[in-house]
Amino acid sequence: MATSAAAAPPGARPRVTYLVKRLEQAVRSYLDEATMEIGLTTPQYAALSSLDLKPGLSSAELARLSFISAQAMNQMVSAMERKNLIRREAAPHHRRQLRIFLTEHGRECLRQCEERADELERKMFAGLSPAERKAVARLLRKCSDSLTQDRAAAGPRRPAEARS
């Protein structure tokens, strides 16, 4: 079994997966503070971003894009609706299915979040050239795509106790 970065011998480099997690935690911490200034959470910011790209998503679709459970998304959608960030409308051909759209207030909050995310990326990439930034984005996308394709090919995973 592989050793963790904490158990690595002195002078050894940490695993790339450790560095990715460390970066993710730093980004999340920064975004949590930045979105709190606007009265939002980082998951709400992610949901607003998804709705900006794909208006009219259902709650279940939004949950998948936001990496949270459908139950958690239902609570989040209700909270965002109370804050006037989103509005829900019945789908034209399926009246029981509700589609979610940004309100003007939601767009303004998203714009403010994007400004803060831009500042985060300026700080994060300050020591990189434009070519290096593009390379980082391309390589991260490639790594993510590889894992996504691998998981899709493997099919659904069963809990450990059921695999014996």
Give an overview of the whole structure.
With 164 residues, the protein is mostly helical. It has helices spanning 16-36, 42-53, 59-66, 70-82, 104-124, 130-154; strands at 86-90, 98-102. Strands 1-2 form a two-stranded antiparallel sheet. β1 and β2 form a beta hairpin. The longest helix is centred in the last third of the chain and has 25 residues, at 130-154. It starts with 15 loop residues before the first helix and ends in a 10-residue tail after the last helix. The mean pLDDT is 88.
Low-confidence stretches: none
Estimate the mean pLDDT confidence: 88
Structural class: mainly alpha
Number of helices: 6
Helix content: 55-70%
How is the secondary structure organized here?
Layout: H1 16-36, H2 42-53, H3 59-66, H4 70-82, E1 86-90, E2 98-102, H5 104-124, H6 130-154
Antiparallel strand pairs: 1-2
Helix pairs in contact: 1-5, 2-3, 2-5, 3-4
Question: Short description, anyone?
Answer:
The protein is mostly helical.
Which key phrases capture this entry?
164 residues; mainly alpha; two-stranded antiparallel sheet; 6 helices
